[in-house]
Structures are given as structure tokens and as C-alpha cells.
Design goal:
Distance between the termini: 139 Å
Radius of gyration: 38 Å
CATH superfamily of the largest domain: DD-peptidase/beta-lactamase superfamily
CATH topology of the largest domain: Beta-lactamase
Oligomer: single chain
Number of domains: 4
Number of strands: 31
Shape: extended
Number of helices: 25
Structural class: alpha+beta
Helix content: 25-40%
Largest sheet: 7 strands, mixed
CATH architecture of the largest domain: 3-Layer(aba) Sandwich
CATH class of the largest domain: Alpha Beta
């Protein structure tokens, strides 16, 4: 049956309504979905990625340039500059800007010119950086010196061409996209002096070794920033926007190190290394016994802080040179050699101290009332210890017989010190090892300190044999720094101090931000005990194994040491000498060690023979430099230096009168009534008993004199030989001639050296009979 028109119309309307409803629902769903999607996207952009997008927007709209802070300086105790940052400039290019001006300038021209000036940077490297056309900042050379940066500036301004030729005025064209940014470069005015203390900085101006590393955060300061607006192509918009965040310069360090004392010590250890052909170098350490301030700290081999990657030690250089340059073995050997020369034996290495450790045993035994100045010891040349089947020998295999405490110390008698150690017992002895600081690091304010190798308390408590060997400084190790810190406590009244290198921290205006506090860590032994130790150690230098370390005019205390290197297949030893002065009121204490000296030098291998003479000379220089007044009782019999008066033009009688008044002798050459010349010349400083040659009308010879070899001669023989050569003898070293074994052990100038007449030849005398 056919539907009526009315019915059809109703169904059509119903169908339209359904479609409309469905359409509205669909539109609503789509609208909601679209809104949700947009909301999520907006949330992601405005919330999740807000910071990243904001940074990108800032980067697109602004250009920022870092402003380097000036790194703080490092000074010695007298204000001498050991490390300083001087102005330098970093060369960089803007590849985006170079691309923008590519139609008016040739990038190959730019690359050639920069490569010629910078030398260490190749043309290909520069071109490769220029290809990064999305970048505004690509570094070409860090911290160029003034001479280099000035050439770059001339090239940028069009004053010179790519080959360095001057460009005629009027045809100059400025290069776009090459810039110089002010920076700073580290310089070390003293080069290798105190290299292991100061350390160095790397290419990023960050401290890598020494104090440069330990105090890096203070020395660096805070980097500043300059922010300017730029357009879409990356070009700066002048006068639109600029903000400057000022850099804060780093703090400076005022050290305890004295550059002069450091020089004396470094020169001293260099001389004994050369003289005795030491395979593993040497060390020298000087400390103020009353504060812990380190006045000098030297380790060999050293290096030039301005060229820290270069190998300076000949032995290390040979170890590298045996490999083909550029090979893996070469690079490994080079890295190993660099680490060895950067390494401080004072801080990073340990060794068996030998007899220089005996003052620790002495102090502990006196403090515990186990020995006194009235104690006696009998030495037969060896001693047997329970638990050990072999005898432990003394340095004198025939024995010292019966001896007092002072004599036993002067003789460095092993059996006597074993007796002292055993009297203390393992528990008490270990307590003193702890109290003197041997079971922990000293706490010095520099990176890399290690600590010695000792038995733990439990193992030591069960081992009497170890107690016996520890008593004379063997079968355990310490660092030189630990030993010096502890020995200072034995002679300064008993106070253990923390060694330190930085005395003050200064701001950029020189104001003191921080001052070191030299409060002692603890008192280990009493003032009375310390006084007895000083008395015993003064005897060591005056009459015992340390007499070759004597210093004319000063009372010195000290101790020699010769220690086996346990496990060394070649039987090498470390010889050493520790000394302090003045003996009755110590101000400074110095330790010198020599590692693996040759046995073929003709000198008996011991601290007393090899190290003490040079250490005594260095201590003499230090005391004179510090203005420590000589002990005039100790000066008795010694000849002091004096200034030669100028008597040219004087009559014979007047000249002789002036010379005799000054304490000098004289020799006359010629028969005229007036002095026409003299040798040495007026103003020269020579030994006060020298004979001055007066030329009475005779012409003074200009012929050079040949220095004779006097090593092995007595003082009288040496004086005759040097005087006959037209030269002047200056005597240093031991003044005790009672043993009859005092001979010249070295001289300041090598034999056959040609020098002017009247030159002073310093000859060091030593007692060749002393043993440790």
C-alpha cells in the first residue's frame, strides 16, 4: 500500500532530524577531540616545553658572549709572583656571518690568513669550522699571545693580507665574521721553580695539578656574560638591547713557600743527583718547626710549568724516544713519563726512612722514662731478637762497646735503638706512631697526599720483630712529609703541627679573606723530652755520623740515614740527612733524600757521606738568608768571608795597613812605591784569611788560571794547590779534624776550568770515616 504524501513528509523530517542529531553529535565529538588535542599541544608547548622553547627564543633573539674572570695569582711568602694570569685573546669565527657576506669576501682567503698567523691551526680545520653556517661562535684558537692576537687584529682590519704583507691605505677591507674575545692566559714567571707545589692549568683554564687544582674553585672566580639582541640572520642589532653581567675575579693565594729557599733546595738536590748519579732522583723539604709552614718542597725530576707536557728529565726522555713517534707505545710511554715528572715524591711516594726515624724512638723512650742521659748501652755489633733467627747488625760490625745515650745516638747504633724500642713494648710504641701522625695523612692543603705503609695495631701488637725493626726505621714506609712533621715535634717542644702551604687567601683588592691558624694538633712529648732529643741530635752533627753536615758559625742538630729498599732486586738504598737549626732553639728543619745513588762514584754510600755535606751547605744558605744570628762560640776557628778593600793608588805601607786591618794577608809583585793593581779587585767577597796580590808597578796578567783537582786532599794540601794556581780557597764542611780522615769531597768548579786569577774556589771537606 503506497504511503500518503503526509506520511512520506513525516518520515523525511524524522530522517533529517536523525541526521542532524548525528551530525551535531559528530561535530561535538570532533570539536571536543580537536579542543583536547589543541589543549594537549598548548600544554606541551606552554608548560612542558616552556623552558626549552623560552631558551630557544632567547637564543634566536639574543647573542651572548662570556666574559672570562681573571684567575687569581699565586705568591710566595714575600710577594714574589709564582703564577699569574696575563691578558690574552681567544680567536673565533661566526660561520653564519661569514656565509652572509660570502659574496663580498672569500672564506679561503680568511682561512689561509688565520692559519698563517696561528701556526698550530691548519687551514682545513678553519674551513671545517666555517662550514657550520648555523653557528655564530666557533673557536679557532684559545688564549693567543699579544703578538699573535695583534696580527689577527691587523688581518681583520685589512691592514695585512693573507701572507702578512701590508695592504695599501685606501684599499683596505675589513673582514666580517672573525672576532677576538678578551681572555687570560696562565704564566709562571719562575718556570720550573716549585713546580710540584704550584701545579698548572689545562686548556680550559682549570687547575689540573698542585695548588692550581686544590684551590681551583677559589682561583677561578665567576665568569661574566654580555647579552645583546640580534636579527633573524643572527647579526647583532646595535643599540637595541644589551645587558652585562660582571665577572668576579678569582681569589689569590699567599703561600708559605719562600722562592729563595726553594731555589737553594732545588739547586742542592740537583747537585747531589749529578754528583752521585742517583737513578731515582731526590727530594728536599724545609719546614718551620714552630708552625708547620712549608718553606720549600722540591722533588726531582721537575718540569717547566709553562710547558708542562714537555719531558725535561733525560732518563724519562730516553724512555719515550725508544718508541716510534706517534705509535701507541710512544703515547703510552709519553703519558707515563709526564705522570712521573708531575708526581711529587714528598706527597705521593713512601720510603723506608732508616736511621732518620731513630729520633722518634728516642723521644718515645725518654718520654716513657725508659732511658735518660745517664743510660748506657753495650754494642757488640749485632743483637738477637726473640722470634727472629738471624742477628740484626749495627752499621759498625765490630760494635761500639759501651756508650751513653748521646753517644749511641751519635753512633746511630742499631742495637741501642732496638733496646729502646723493646723497652717500650708493642702497644706503647704503636701509640706513639699514632701520636706522631704516622698512621694517617698529615692533612696538608694540597691534593694527592698518600700515607705510609705500617702494620695495623693488632698485627703490630703480636710482632716483636717488627717492633725491633721499626725502632731503627726499617720494614715500614712513610712519606717525607710525615717524617718531617713528626721530627719537628721531637725538637720544637713536642708539638705536632699540620703542614700547610697556603698562608692567606686574598681577594682581588689584596684584602685577606682567610688566614691560616697554626694551632698545634697535639703535644706528643714534653718540653723536657724535646730538649734532650735536641741535645742528642746536636751531638750527632758535632761529633757523630752527621759531622759532614756542619755549618760554620751555627749549632746544628741532625740525623743521617741509609735505608734498604725492601724487595729491590739490585740492592739499591735511599740515603738521607735531616737537620735543624739553631740546635738550642730550632726555627727550621730540613730533610734531603737521595734515591738509588750509584756505588761507583768512589764515595761510601751513606747519608753521612753523600747527603749531609750538601744539606749542610743549603742549611747555611737558609740561615744566612733568614737572618739567623751566628753562634759566635761555634764560629771559633772558622774563617768568615770579608770584603776586599780597594787599595789601588795607595802607597805600599798604606795598602798593607788597610789589608791587615781587614784581616787579609798580602803578596807583593814588583818594587814600585804605589799599588797599580790588585787581585782580587776591591769589593770582592773572599775568605777573611785570603792573601791579596798587590802589583807594585808590574802589569797584572790577564792569562786565565786553570782550576786544579783537589778532591781527596787535606785542607792544607788543597790550599797549597789552589794558591799556587793563582786562586783562593774557601773551606766549607766539617771543621772536626780529630779523626784524621777529613778530606776534600767536592769543589765548586770542575778541574781544568779556566777562570780569572783570584777566583774563589769553594771546597767542601768531609770526614770519610763516618758511617750511618
Amino acid at each position: 500500500m503506497a504511503l500518503s504524501p503526509k506520511r512520506k513528509s513525516e518520515e523525511a523530517r524524522r530522517a533529517n532530524r536523525v541526521i542532524n542529531h548525528r551530525t551535531m553529535w559528530l561535530m561535538g565529538i570532533l570539536g571536543v577531540a580537536t579542543f583536547v588535542a589543541l589543549f594537549i599541544q598548548l600544554y606541551d608547548l606552554q608548560i612542558t616545553q616552556h623552558e626549552d622553547l623560552q631558551e630557544q627564543a632567547v637564543a634566536q633573539q639574543t647573542a651572548s658572549t662570556t666574559v672570562t674572570a681573571a684567575r687569581g695569582s699565586i705568591f710566595d711568602r714575600n710577594g714574589n709572583v709564582l703564577a699569574v694570569s696575563a691578558t690574552a685573546e681567544t680567536v673565533f669565527v661566526s660561520p653564519a656571518e661569514i656565509e652572509e657576506y660570502s659574496e663580498t669576501q672569500d672564506k679561503y682567503y680568511i682561512a689561509r690568513g688565520l692559519a698563517r698567523i696561528l701556526e698550530d691551526v691548519t687551514e682545513d680545520t678553519i674551513l671545517e669550522k666555517m662550514e657550520k653556517t648555523y653557528s655564530q661562535y666557533e673557536v679557532i684558537a684559545l688564549r693567543a699571545d699579544a703578538s699573535v692576537s695583534n696580527q689577527v687584529r691587523q688581518f681583520i682590519n685589512g691592514e695585512i693580507d693573507e701572507y702578512g704583507n701590508e695592504v695599501a691605505e685606501g684599499s683596505q677591507s675589513r673582514i666580517r665574521g672573525v672576532y677576538l674575545l678578551e681572555d687570560s692566559k696562565r704564566y709562571y714567571p719562575y718556570s720550573s721553580l716549585a713546580s710540584h707545589i704550584v701545579g698548572f692549568v689545562g686548556t680550559e683554564n682549570t687547575g689540573l695539578y698542585g695548588l692550581e687544582s686544590a684551590y681551583d674553585s677559589l682561583l677561578q672566580g665567576t665568569t661574566g656574560l654580555t647579552v645583546t639582541a640580534k636579527n633573524a640572520s643572527g647579526t647583532d642589532l646595535l643599540y637595541q638591547y644589551e645587558q652585562y653581567y660582571q665577572a668576579q675575579d678569582g681569589y689569590s693565594l699567599a703561600l708559605t713557600i719562600d722562592a729563595n729557599i726553594q731555589y737553594y733546595v732545588e739547586t742542592g738536590i740537583a747537585s747531589i743527583i749529578e754528583q752521585f748519579d742517583a737513578a731515582n732522583g731526590a727530594t728536599g723539604l724545609v719546614m718551620d718547626v714552630n708552625t708547620g709552614a712549608v718553606l720549600a718542597m722540591a722533588s726531582s725530576p721537575g718540569y717547566d710549568l709553562n710547558n708542562y707536557s714537555t719531558i725535561y728529565d733525560s732518563g724519562l726522555a730516553e724512555a719515550v724516544a725508544q718508541y716510534e713517534e706517534g705509535s701507541d707505545e710512544y703515547w703510552d710511554a709519553l703519558a707515563s713519563a709526564q705522570l712521573q715528572q708531575w708526581r711529587s715524591k714528598i706527597l705521593n711516594d713512601t720510603y723506608e726512612p732508616g736511621s732518620t726515624f731513630k729520633p722518634i724512638t728516642l723521644a718515645a723512650a725518654i718520654e716513657e722514662n725508659k732511658v735518660s742521659l745517664n743510660s748506657t748501652f753495650t754494642c757488640n755489633g749485632y743483637v738477637m731478637v726473640d722470634g727472629w733467627s738471624s742477628p740484626i747488625y749495627c752499621s759498625n760490625k765490630y760494635g761500639h762497646g759501651t756508650q751513653t745515650l748521646i753517644e749511641a745516638t751519635g753512633n746511630s747504633c742499631n742495637p741501642a735503638f732496638i733496646s729502646m724500642g723493646l723497652s717500650l713494648g708493642t702497644s706503647t710504641y704503636y701509640d706513639y706512631l699514632e701520636s706522631f701522625g704516622f698512621t694517617e695523612k698529615t692533612g696538608i692543603d694540597i691534593i694527592g697526599e698518600t700515607t705510609g705503609i705500617l702494620l695495623d695495631e693488632k698485627s703490630f701488637g703480636q710482632n716483636v720483630v717488627s717492633l725491633a725493626s721499626y725502632s731503627f726505621g726499617q720494614t715500614f714506609t712513610v712519606t717525607p712529609l710525615q717524617l718531617v712533621s713528626a721530627l719537628s715535634a721531637t725538637v720544637n717542644g713536642g708539638y705536632l703541627y699540620t703542614p700547610y702551604l697556603v698562608d692567606q687567601i686574598l681577594d682581588s683588592d689584596g684584602n685577606v679573606i682567610e688566614q691560616h691558624n697554626s694551632t698545634p694538633v697535639r703535644q706528643v712529648v714534653s718540653e723536657e723530652t724535646s730538649a734532650i732529643v735536641r741535645q742528642c741530635l746536636e751531638y750527632v752533627v758535632a761529633y757523630g755520623s752527621g759531622k759532614n753536615g756542619q755549618v760554620a758559625g751555627y749549632s746544628i742538630g741532625g740525623k743521617t740515614g741509609t735505608a734498604d729498599k725492601t724487595g729491590d732486586p739490585d740492592g739499591n738504598v735511599i740515603v738521607s740527612f735531616v737537620c735543624f737549626a739553631p740546635a738550642d732553639d730550632p726555627q727550621v728543619l730540613m730533610l734531603m733524600t737521595l734515591d738509588s745513588p750509584s756505588r761507583d762514584t768512589g764515595t761510601y754510600v751513606s747519608g753521612g757521606q753523600m747527603v749531609a755535606p750538601t744539606a749542610g751547605n743549603v742549611m747555611g744558605e737558609i740561615l744566612a738568608y733568614l737572618g739567623v744570628e751566628p753562634d759566635y762560640d761555634a764560629l771559633e776557628g772558622a774563617v768568615a768571608d770579608a770584603t776586599v778593600p780597594n787599595v789601588v793608588g795607595y802607597s805600599q805601607e798604606e795598602a798593607i795597613s788597610h789589608l791587615e786591618a781587614a784581616g787579609f794577608g798580602y803578596t807583593l809583585v814588583g818594587d814600585q812605591p804605589f799599588v797599580t793593581d790588585q787581585t782580587p779587585v776591591g769589593g770582592a767577597i773572599v775568605p777573611g784569611d785570603a792573601a791579596i796580590v798587590l802589583y807594585m808597578g808590574e802589569e797584572k796578567s790577564t792569562e786565565l788560571c786553570s782550576v786544579p783537582n783537589v778532591v781527596g786532599l787535606t785542607a792544607s794540601q788543597a790550599n797549597t794547590k789552589i794558591t799556587n794556581a793563582g786562586l783562593i780557597l774557601k773551606v766549607t764542611g766539617t771543621t772536626d779534624t780529630t779523626s784524621g780522615n777529613v778530606y776534600a769531597i767536592n769543589q765548586s768548579l770542575a778541574s781544568d776550568t779556566l777562570v780569572a786569577a783570584g777566583t774563589v774556589i769553594t771546597v767542601q771537606f768531609g770526614d770519610t770515616s763516618v758511617i750511618d
